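Name: RNA-guided endonuclease InsQ/TnpB family protein
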Amino acid sequence: MAKQVVTRTHTASIQNQSRVQDDLDSLGFAASKLWNVGRWTCSRIWAEIDHIPNHNELTTYLKTHERYDDLHSQSSQRVLQELAEAFNGWYGKRRNGDTRANPPGYRKHGDEHPRSTVTFKAAGFKLDTQYNRVRLSKGSNLKEYWSDFILCEFQTRPDVDLSTVENVQQVRTVWTGEEWELHFVCKVEVEMSEAPGERTVGVDLGINNFAALAYEDGHSELYPLNSLKQDDYYFSKRIARCDDSNSEQATRLNHKKSARRTHYFHTLSKHIVERCVEEGVGTIVVGDPSGIREEDDSDESKNWGKHGNLDLHSWAFDRFTDLLEYKAEIESIVVEEVPEVGTSKSCSCCGRKRDANRVERGLYVCDDCETVANADVNGAENIRQKVSPSPATDGGDRSNGWLAQPSTFLFDKETGGFAPQERVTS
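Structure predicted for RNA-guided endonuclease InsQ/TnpB family protein:
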């Protein structure tokens, strides 16, 4: 098998939490303060010259600021880089017509600053894999003496051995809502499989079924969002009952909600790649989900109703696609993104495009060729055909029964993975 170098992040618990928490808290608070200084600077520059400064400009403006020296210089640079990236993301959404997008806010709860993630690059940490320790640098303002540092004792998962990793690029300290943990960002060499086959599959991302898959050989699959919707509802209710939305309790609940969603995305992307390997798929065609945020004929954001908008804008489609890409890469499966424009209104069997053919959210009925299809699967097949056209749309004869009867996979809370609907008990 061929080998390839990829980036992986390994999470580790901190074994001497009680001894280092105060120091880690001070760094987390410092990162929030620097973020706020940068946020204020961006607002001032935008108001004066109608320009959002990039990462290098922000660093030039603030490298002499007192808050910059609270962290190691590379850690301060990373805070400002994240802020610049957040502004670019917001500005890009607004430019594309998403009027609901908000600029990055200040990291401050009343008079208190939250614990922000701190990133240490090569010069900011020293790793000792023999004794499972990592030394993290402080900024000059937080040092009691010139060589002061934080020494964290850590424990990774049993299947992770950092001593075999040749290149640990970054170390991040991350507050989970209850304690600090370490994230080691590494370059690792992995064996790459031969491509499973030459078939294609289309993937349509949506707000009822998170993913609908249409395979080249004719069958299809749905991945409903029941579990994720239940989590959103449960945690939203719990957070709403908190006395303060910025309280420690609300923060812990938000972290738990985020962690469960991350697990869902990881598990779903892994399951889809495994299914592709089983089906001999060499290319995954994913619809670019940004299109579902705007009306087809205007620059206004789509209105899916109160609950639809809440769900749609809280799901990280881009994040899921990134996870899918790197998991597919290991299996030598290519992931291609294509525009979704018109895929929900066109018949995947004859090409007829008519708004009224989408009878309701889950049903598509073609008035020309009489195709009856699950609407999301029909969209997924149209997405697939943008890379691998089907003979059916060129006058060929192809049964369309598979469009209306997709297999359904649900997230099983008992096992933490996906399984056919009939085998899920939770």
